[in-house]
Amino acid sequence: MPRRRRVGWLALLALAHGCGYSIVRTGGSLGDVHSVAIETPRNDSWEPGAEYVVAEALRSEFLRRKGVRLVEDPSSADLVLRGRIHRIGTRTASVDSVVLALEYEITLELDLEARRSGGAAVPIDVGALRDSERYLASADPEVMRKNRQEALRQVASVLAGRLYLALQETLESGAPPEPASPAAPGTSG
């Protein structure tokens, strides 16, 4: 009986992995980083309030992981995360036979940097900072707005999770930091 139960769990894990599901660690430290300050990103998109959606998603992800403590003051943090929303784009994702939109797709692109308290940059995989999410079209403008807002929240949450994992991989591996540069991202041009 115990062997049968073990085979059942293995089959369940294999099935879940094949469907795109994976086991997510909720903890996980960021190496020697114990405190993080997350600044609200600058919004260079045409989407009003998107900076608050992204900042909330980032803060929620770091709180959920429980690997570090969030602090308000960047000068007291081991790591500071800052940057900008580079772009939010929308395109028609699917149409019906009469060429009416059934779904739209919102794409969120972030330009973020992580810096240690001494000013050294922590490299972030840029692939972790761009993703899309589909949402249903509607003839009702209020429903359409809510669907779009929920899709933006969802894609921001996905990117926050990817960013945390990218930082975790970099900081735990002990990758050498990049030298400090004088300008933060998004401060010029």
Overall description:
The structure is a single chain. By secondary structure, this protein is of the alpha/beta class. The protein has a single domain, classed as Lipoprotein like domain (Double Stranded RNA Binding Domain, 2-Layer Sandwich). Strands 1, 2, 3, 4, 5, 6 and 7 form a seven-stranded mixed sheet that branches.
Brief digest:
Helix 2 (50-65) packs across helix 3 (141-173). Residues 17-26 and 180-189 have low confidence and may be disordered.
Please write out the topology:
Blueprint: H1 2-18, E1 35-38, E2 42-43, H2 50-65, E3 69-70, E4 79-95, E5 101-116, E6 121-122, E7 130-136, H3 141-173
Q: For this structure, what is the CATH class?
A: Alpha Beta
Overall tally of domains: 1
As residue ranges, the low-confidence spans are 17-26, 180-189
Q: Given the C-alpha coordinates, what overall shape results?
A: elongated
Strand segment tally: 7
Mean pLDDT: 84
CATH architecture tag: 2-Layer Sandwich
Proportion of β residues?
25-35%
Taking all Cα atoms into account, the compactness measure Rg is: 20 Å
Order of helices and strands: HEEHEEEEEH
What fraction, in percent, of the residue positions are helical?
25-40%
Q: What is the CATH topology descriptor?
A: Double Stranded RNA Binding Domain
What is the makeup of the main sheet?
7 strands, mixed
Give the class from helix and strand content and strand pairing: alpha/beta
At the fourth level of CATH, the homologous superfamily is Lipoprotein like domain
